[in-house]
Amino acid sequence: MEVSLWIEWVIKSLFIILLLTGGFAYTTLYERRVLARMQVRIGPNRAGPFGLLQPVADGIKLIFKEELIPEKADKLIFILAPVITVIPALIITAVVPWGESVWVFGREIKLYLADLDVGVLYLMAVTSISVYGITLAGWSSNNKYATLGGLRATAQMISYELAMGFAMLGPVLMAGSMRMIDIVNAQRSMWFILPQAIAFLIYLATSLAEINRAPFDMPEAEQELTAGYHTEYSGMKFALFFMAEYIKMIAISMIGSSLFLGGYHWPLPAHWLGGFAGPINLFGKTVIWMFFIIWVRATLPRIRYDKLMQLGWKVLFPLALLNVAVTAAVIVLVGG
Amino acid sequence: MTPVMVVFGLLGVVVILTALGMLLSRNAIYSALFLVLNFATVAVLYIILGAPFISLVQITVYAGSIMVMFLFVIMLLGAERLPGSDRLRRQRWIAAILGLVFVAQVILFIFFRGQLTAPVGTPPATLGSPQAVGTTLFTTYALPFEVTGAILVVATVGAILLTRGAALPYSPIRKEEK
Description:
The complex is a heterodimer. Chain A is mainly α. Chain A has helices spanning 3-38, 54-63, 75-91, 119-129, 131-140, 144-175, 180-185, 197-210, 222-225, 235-260, 277-299, 305-334, and strands at 101-104, 107-110. Chain A has one domain. Chain A is built from twelve helices and two strands, in the order αααββααααααααα. In chain A, strand 1 and strand 2 form a beta hairpin. The longest helix of chain A is centred in the N-terminal third of the chain and has 36 residues, at 3-38. The relative contact order of chain A is 0.14. Among the domains of chain B are: 1-82, Four Helix Bundle (Hemerythrin (Met), subunit A) (Up-down Bundle); 141-178. Chain B has eight helices and no strands. The chains are: A mainly alpha, B mainly alpha.
């Protein structure tokens, strides 16, 4: 194993992490501006031109806030929980390819971090462990609202995880591979959103539930649970939960774009601009997907908790299962 | 000793320590978390052994789903704290003797069946790929696979029936239907 390859991996990993954390800061601004426009307001526009320095101001404010730890809290887990929440969010996009390859300083750089032959399974594995942070945060706070929020989050995320896994299996079956690059390349002629429309809709709904976004933001329903699992958190620990939520939003947009919207292909051919057209395509699709998520938040009211569970188990899960069975049968019959 | 072997050994130590932590912790939540760490470390061992598929399934199913259910149940029942005194104190000496017998058995087995410690040949690199695992599962091991599936379905149906209990025939919904 040559040293330069190691250096390349480290630089790519750092790049992804910095991009996601920086992306988090500007996603908050994006959401606030878009929400404001949809509610006929202006939104934050004081700090810097167009409010572009607002995330910086927010960050400085959060750093100088006092960190409170409840006296009867389980201190170790209380401190660890935000960290456990952020890590899955930061690592999940490692398997998403951004493009083919670019030449930098006379060296060909492949535009992906990890080319796993079990890429989609990796996504499932990381999704399934991302529940822990929220659950533990709720439990360790020793607060009834926080515990209820944590329990709700657990129940919701494990219920929707199954349907999401089956929705992801649609593109896997179509491409005949669990490798993300194969899935993206299989969509050169046709995006999987067309033959896998049901899987796409299920992914759209379940991914919102997985990241606890409206209309499935039951774990932090303000009217019932104050702020849910992060009621007792303040300062940078709260910022970490906030960060995890927004990074997950970016992550599901990137993953969804790669699985259903052709990833880094189209509208620009991926080899244009010396290969940089690929990342631009993916970035554009991610921004549009996130706009949709914000739009949903501005439009739909939160659904009731028992309705949420019913939707997950009695509608989305059987539908996803049926979709997988039908897709598999069709592929075998057509001889794909 | 290659670096990989050193890492493997260190991870083995972590596996043993987390297993001990799971057994000895007096707080059920910490026990569950130790077990999660144990599963995750075993998953890393699988990766070193060239089986990424099994490794990620291990994380998805055991660390991700089953242990989350454990945590959920512990939190829901509020059963984090174990009672301070050991109720089975009288049976401790039996446990010690049986444990010694078991260790002796294992040692004797390894001693007489020397090939247990013989090195296994390196498997081909494609053995752990999803295609290979899938093909093996649906051809060579098709019957055990199907039987396992059937057993799991029966267990699921049984669990659902148990939770509905005897209330089913007398429930008001049934009466209205009649």
